[in-house]
Amino acid sequence: MKTIFLVMLISFLLSNSYAQKKRVEIYHYVFPEFVKGTVLMKSGLKNEAMLNYNALTEEMIFDKNGKKLAMGLLSEIDTVYIDGRKFFPFQNKFVELLYHNKLDLYALYQANILDPGKPAAYGGTSQTSSTTSYSSILSGGQAYELELPQGTETQASMQYWLKKDGELTQFLNLRQLSKQFDNKAAQFKKYVKDNKVDYDDPASMVGLIKFLEQN
């Protein structure tokens, strides 16, 4: 019995450790590792590179012989293709085209560093967004690595743009999106409730946009 308990305990600790590591690795990059992609220039020229999008610095990063560098000359780039997904330069950053039909949905991936926490009363900690931690990690070049320094935590967030009737509009939450579909208020509300739409889940948002387009 003790042996079974010990095995279960070790399995739990290993899985918990893995989950924490993945959280650090994934939350400040869109992909868990650098992927071979293609950069299509407006001139028609194509360049292949190992690519990933850094949500912390909000830059497209390429790996050149082990060194992580931010992509420049965004005004000359048409599209970046990574693992079957499309990214476009937008406002000096990159957005991903999540859905394209009568309606287009774009997403901007972002991440913020959370302060590890300062000692508080009764042995607790207080945790706030930390500009100091970000500056330190950025200046040391660590923000470009897949794994951040131990103890660093990040918080992911999303921003979306919807192209409807040729007009591109940003929305920061579901309520703002609903205002663009006043004529479908009842359907919008029911779909969101029945499908538990999650603003921070791109796939969930794509499902909502498809429904609104078809109904």
What would the keywords be for this entry?
215 residues; ten-stranded antiparallel sheet; two-stranded antiparallel ribbon; globular
Describe the model:
With 215 residues, the chain is α+β, with helices and mostly antiparallel strands. It is 29% helix and 36% strand. The chain is built from five helices and twelve strands. It has helices spanning 2-26, 131-139, 174-178, 185-195, 202-214, and strands spanning 35-41, 46-54, 59-64, 67-70, 77-82, 85-90, 93-100, 104-114, 118-119, 125-126, 153-164, 167-171. A ten-stranded antiparallel beta sheet has the order 4-3-2-1-5-6-7-8-11-12. It has a two-stranded antiparallel ribbon with strand order 9-10. Helix 4 (185-195) packs antiparallel against helix 5 (202-214).
How would the blueprint of this fold be written?
Elements (H helix, E strand, L loop, with lengths): L1 H25 L8 E7 L4 E9 L4 E6 L2 E4 L6 E6 L2 E6 L2 E8 L3 E11 L3 E2 L5 E2 L4 H9 L13 E12 L2 E5 L2 H5 L6 H11 L6 H13 L1
Antiparallel strand pairs: 1-2, 1-5, 2-3, 3-4, 5-6, 6-7, 7-8, 8-11, 9-10, 11-12
Helix pairs in contact: 4-5
Short précis:
With 215 residues, the protein is α+β, with helices and mostly antiparallel strands. It is built from five helices and twelve strands. It has helices spanning 2-26, 131-139, 174-178, 185-195, 202-214, and strands at 35-41, 46-54, 59-64, 67-70, 77-82, 85-90, 93-100, 104-114, 118-119, 125-126, 153-164, 167-171.
